[in-house]
Amino acid sequence: MGGISDPAHKFELGRAGPIGLMKSLPLVFCGIFLTLAGSWAGIVLLNHIQLGSLEPTTQQLDPETGGQMAGEERFPRVPLGEALQGKSVYISMGCLYCHTQQVRRKGFGSDYERNWGSRQSVPRDYIRQQRVLLGTMRTGPDLMTVGQRISDRNWHHLHLYDPRITSAGSTMPGFAFLYEQRPVERAGASPHALLFPPSHAMEEGFEVVPTRRAQALVSYLLSLKLDYDLPEAVRE
Amino acid sequence: MSSYATSVSSSINPYSSSDAAVRARLSKIDGSMKGPALLFIVSAVLWLLAGTLLALIASLKLTFPTFLDHWEWLTFGRVRAAHLNAMIYGWSNNAAFAVGLWIMARLCRTEIRHVGLLFIAGVFWNIAATIGIVGIFKGDLTSVEWLEFPTYVTPLIAFSYALIGVWGIIAFRYRNTSHIYVSQWFILAALFWLPWLYTVAQIMIFFEPARGTVQSLTNWWFTHNFLGLWLTPIGLAAAYYFIPKVLGRPIYSYYLSIFGFWALALFTNWAGAHHLIGGPVPSWVISAGVVASMMMIIPVVITALNHHMTVVGHFRRVIESPTLRFVVFGAVSYTLVSLIGSTMALRSVNEITHFTHFTVGHAHHGMYAFFTMIMFGSIYFIMPRLLHREWPSAALIKLHFWFTAIGITLMLLALHIGGWFQGLAMNNPDIEFLEVVRGTIPWLHARSLSGILITIGHIAFAINLFWMILARLGRTDWEGSPTPLTNSNSAEPAR
After folding, report:
1. ipTM for this model
2. A206 part of contact set with chain B, CB < 8 Å
3. Is residue B167 classed exposed, middle or buried when 0-12, 13-18 and 19+ CB atoms within 10 A define those classes?
4. Number of neighbours of residue B308 by Cβ within 10 angstroms
5. CB B369 within 8 A of CB B410
6. Neighbours of B295 (CB within 10 A)
7. Which of B253, B355, B440, B441 is best to mutate for the A interface (most A CBs within 10 A)?
8. Do B370 and B333 form a contact (C-beta atoms < 8 A)?
9. Bridge partners, A233 (sequence order)
């Protein structure tokens, strides 16, 4: 090891060793390229190949053929109509910053115990979504199964109009701008008007009516369900 | 040993030369960068102020949900997204362009020619960022984290970036020195990595959306690497440049810096998958992300050794130099944030911290306590050399440092501790969810308070900067002496 402490030796090492190599632009560039190429291939491309071939399937597979059961509905469902419009409202309001849409397996966190889903959500659950909104933050609860947990349209409208009406102490922002507060017309109250609890009753002669965007958003929330099995994920 | 140290010292630090011709040359190089660097720095600081205001609004909204809730464009989701994007595309990228290109030009000992093109590209970058922010307020945000800008600004962002980034490569190609310093590899690599990340993310999430949760993997591959392979290399390049530069002594070990560079390049880019632990993605990719996050300890410890061993024993000068105060604060934060980040990737820890304010705190640890503080320090060094004028007020620099340093420390404590308790409570199904929400509120109040402190610091910084630019406009001779923070004549190195 004596030679290592010799400055001259170090100098030589410096020219031929790593420092020397680091002066070779093509070599350095190859390294820069390959390091990112590795993770791109691994994280993005391999998963693209693995998950890209996933197709909707029946809840159980045929035990004899191992294929899908003939004639049965295939899941996940195709998102439709108003719910799909509601998803764009969900995106444009930035709901994702406080709400996730993923259920972790039983035993990891308390997703199962909190009744956020009776099974883990798996890659196939998302394959029909044009934009996947997994989310990374639970300032509010997970919404993967909110349509199952709360199926009352009026509850969702009240909650969006002013979250404190349905959930005391909530820090969710209100979306009153998605609603129209107006005098009740002479012809009678709108069939869509919100039904307020006595504690938050509207002023006499006024009603609150959801706009189309609010209707769509609630339809979207009601469509969020995990009420089917997949061969790889069965409900408990 | 000493002769070796001297040779390395001069090899990495050729610009502290006592040779007047070298200094004149450097001055010329700095002069060539004046227009674009000023544009990037001024835009960066304006974005910083805008982003800070948005941050305060978002923070207050989390505890006072009815605050400003009548306007759709100011709903929490949009303000938060606007804050984040103003900070990363406005503040951070402009600062990274200024600092990265300036260091690159200096280390390559080459003047930047045709700066008009670079200047115009910079103007377009800022126009793109402005359109993006307006788009977010309008409701065109994508709700894909760190990529919220509406897709109609993507071409402008990509095009103006290409015209900006290419100048770093041109400077490197026409360098007038046989030495290549560690900062140059970092900047060169970062300039190359960013467009790749951005292009892949844009295509696979928006233009040809990948199937299902591959989008989420792409998203976190991009987002983690935007910090890890773009802003981190620029921040480390600045630390590697300014610490030895201001101290006037060589970096602790040149060899370590090479291994640190490659270890970072190799492991950072796999680590992003740890943001999806427990999520609906194949578990092997999560495992790979966890392993890579653990391996990140290697480059982090190497970099920490290199930075901190260079500084050890010279703490007085760190206190005296405005540049070093901020840069060393950032370098220490880099060590801490990276080690905490590796820990957070462990499944058992992640089970608690995932989905909580802990992660938000971690993001600010990296983006602010590390990257932003280093950019502040760099700007304190660069501006006097662009304008040939000193900072007008040492008091404002001190104010800037203490309010931001104390502010970010308070924020990190509040979000890390509060987030940890939030995670524990959330994992206990006996605690009602609204009770979990209530438990976070005191910590979020503390975060708003920290935001106010940071805002004061930023205002002090902005006043000093614009005072410096506007005072005696047009004079180009050196005015006054360097701006040490204590009575000492060794605060700043030779120009």
Report:
1. 0.90
2. no
3. buried
4. 15
5. no
6. 17
7. B355
8. yes
9. A230
DSSP state of B231: I
Cβ atoms of residues B157 and B74 within 8 Å:
no
Tell me if B405 sits within 8 A of B354, measured CB to CB.
Answer: no
Cα(A148)–Cα(A224) distance, integer angstroms: 7
Look at residues B48, B164, B159, B162 and name the one whose alpha carbon lies nearest to residue B104: B164
> Comparing C-alpha atoms, which of B143, B132, B129 is closest to residue B76?
B143
Question: What count of residues does chain B have?
Answer: 495
Beta bridge partners, A57, equal A75
Segment B300-319 mean pLDDT: 92
Contact criterion met (CB < 8 Å) for A92 and B279: no
Residues of B in contact with A48 (CB under 8 A): 204, 210-211, 214
| Nearest one of B78, B181, B189 to B138, comparing CA atoms | B78
Count helices and strands in chain A by DSSP H and E runs: 9, 2
CB B144 within 8 A of CB B126: no
CA B20 from centre of chain: 34
Task: Measure the CA–CA gap between B213 and A134, rounded to whole angstroms.
Answer: 8
- How far apart are alpha carbons B426 and A183 in whole angstroms? 43
For residues B17-31, average pLDDT: 76
Instruction: Supply angle C-alpha B189, B194, B195, rounded to 5.
Output: 115
Report chain B residues whose CB lies below 8 A from the CB of A18: 255, 258-259
Strand partners, A208: A181
Torsion of CA B240, B241, B244, B248, to 10 degrees: 180
B36, B196, B46, B207: which is closest to B124 by C-alpha?
Answer: B36
- CB of A168 within 8 A of CB of B438? no
Written as one letter, the residue type at B343 is: T
- The DSSP 8-state label assigned to residue B112 in this structure reads P
Nearest to A22 among B75, B141, B185 (CB): B185
Shortest CA distance to B461 belongs to which of B37, B36, B47, B34? B47
Terminal Cα-to-Cα distance of chain A (whole angstroms):
65
Whether the Cβ atoms of residue B398 and residue B461 lie closer than 8 Å to each other:
no
Separation between Cα atoms, residue A66 and residue B370, nearest integer Å: 54
Cα–Cα nearest to B82, from B108, B50, B35, B110: B50
pLDDT band with cut points at 50, 70 and 90 for residue B179 = confident
| The pair of three-digit structure tokens given for residue B179, joined into one six-digit string | 């030495």
- Structural tokens at position B48: 């910083």
- Average of per-residue pLDDT across B295-309: 93
Report yes or no: B186 and B234 within 8 Å, Cβ to Cβ: yes
Give the A:B interface size as CB pairs under 8 Å. Answer: 230
Name the range with the highest mean pLDDT among A71-75, B109-113, B410-414.
Answer: B410-414
Rounded distance, CA B188 to CA A173, Å? 44
Short-list B256, B264, B325, B312, CA closest to B292: B264
